[in-house]
Amino acid sequence: MKTSEKIYQENSYLTELEAEVISCIKKDDCYEAILDKTIFYPHMSGGQPKDEGTINSIKACDVQERGDEIVHMLKEEISGIVTLNINFCKRFDHMQQHTGQHILSYAFSNLFDGNTVGFHMSDNYTTIDLDIPLTEEMTEQAEQLCNKIIYENKIVVAKNYSYEEAMKLDLRKDPLKLDVLRIIEVENCDISACGGTHVRNTGEIGIIKVTKTEKYKQGTRVEFLCGKRALDDYIIKNRNISALSSLLTCRSDMLMDNFEKIINENKKLKKDMNNLNNILNEYKARDLKINAIENENVKYIFSLSDEDVKDLRYICSKITEDENYVAVMVSETESGCSLVIGQSKNMNYDIKNIFEKCRVIINGKGGGNNFLLQCTGDKSNGAECLDFAKNMFLK
Ligand SMILES: [Zn+2]
Asked: Which helix (DSSP H) or strand (DSSP E) does residue 225 occupy?
């Protein structure tokens, strides 16, 4: 069978092409069309994403490479001579990212002997995996070299070589052992085997910007943006920085200092608030103790409030610091109830037994020891829970 000519490799800029349908076979709910030639770059795992476009105005849902064939998946049947169109915005974006990747991999290899052992391109970002650790300085140095190569507007050429011929070249990476290898050469710079689509001159990449690095296996995963993607990212970042600057009414170069100041102030405020809250809770404990119900030398406190469980626990522990106290504290909000039951260290009520019964009333979850028990439930029936506890203790 005739195989499809990969026109996208000969001319990555061609957006329209007439081709002849060799076969079009229905499979499940799709037609799989093979043409004598194609401008559609196929879907590959990792690497460069497939092209988007149409054949005779019918959307190509997927494009796959099977052996030597490029298979186009369509919802309708096609035959004869057809017209192929690809989305060039998307294609050119892929060309920018892909050529950028060659240059970035070259920079890390040339400057630090770092090998690219992985490459992934998605619709939003591209990553390469290096086998070396990176410092911030190393990344910046590589970025500088990459962008210098862009300013020099070097020619990018694709040429086919036999394996033997290719091995005589100064390849950045050992290629697969194929009879014919497609070699991409960035003038006086990177030489590597690749089947993807690339720009003609490095200037078309516009910019290469690393956006993130993270430790990956023994090396580093480098995330980067090229061309329009980098510009779009810059626009968003600049917009955010400007918004933050006007929010803090400061220049953008003062943002870091101001944020640090705000974070430290916030930490101090939280600490102060916590201290004040504890003081307030101590007053509340004292107040509750004044109004305790005394029965056979035991002082009982039953309270219903809207405090959070943390405060209830604090107040309860303050009350039971003195001898002969039993405290049942319930708080109620729209979303449910919290319950804390405690007793002084010299007491030996079986408060766990009463707690368990009260807990069921508010559908609470929690526990504790025989001197302090707490739970929070999703039923807003605090008064019922408190009355029940009162009856149990004072019966
Ligand atoms: Zn490539």
From this structure: strand 219-226
| CA end-to-end span of the chain | 96
Write out the CATH class of domain 91-245.
alpha beta
d(CA 237, CA 212) in angstroms, rounded, equals: 14
Ligand 1 mean position to 239 CA, how many Å?
A: 33
Per-residue pLDDT tens, the chain, 395 aa: give them.
Answer: 557 899 999 999 999 999 999 999 999 999 999 999 999 999 876 678 999 999 999 999 999 999 889 999 999 999 999 999 999 999 999 999 999 999 999 999 999 999 999 999 988 899 999 999 999 999 999 999 999 999 999 999 999 999 999 999 999 998 889 899 999 999 999 999 999 999 999 999 999 999 999 999 999 999 999 999 999 999 999 999 999 999 999 999 999 999 999 999 999 999 999 999 999 999 999 999 999 999 999 999 999 999 999 999 999 999 999 999 999 999 998 889 999 999 999 999 999 999 999 999 999 999 999 999 999 999 989 999 999 999 999 98
82 alpha carbon – ligand 1 mean position (Å): 28
Q: Which residues, by Cβ under 5 Å, contact ligand 1, an ion?
A: 98, 194, 196
Task: Provide the CB-side half-sphere exposure for 167 (13 A, CA).
Answer: 7
Q: Which of 326, 336, 317 is nearest to 375 (CA)?
A: 336
Between the CA of 41 and the centroid of ligand 1 the distance, in Å, is: 12
CA of 234 to the centre of ligand 1 (A): 25
Per-domain boundaries in the chain? 5-86, 91-245, 278-394
Class level of CATH domain 278-394: alpha beta
Q: Tell how far the Cα of 157 is from the centroid of ligand 1, in angstroms.
A: 11
What tokens were used for 331?
Answer: 């708080």
Instruction: Determine the distance separating the centroid of ligand 1 and the alpha carbon of 184, expressed in angstroms.
Output: 7
Domains 5-86 and 278-394 share a fold: no
Handedness of CA 367, 368, 372, 374 (dihedral sign): negative
Q: Which two tokens stand for residue 346?
A: 């010299």
Domain 5-86 has CATH 3.30.2160.10: no
Ligand 1 mean position, distance from CA 271 (Å): 56
CA 183 – ligand 1 centroid, Å:
9
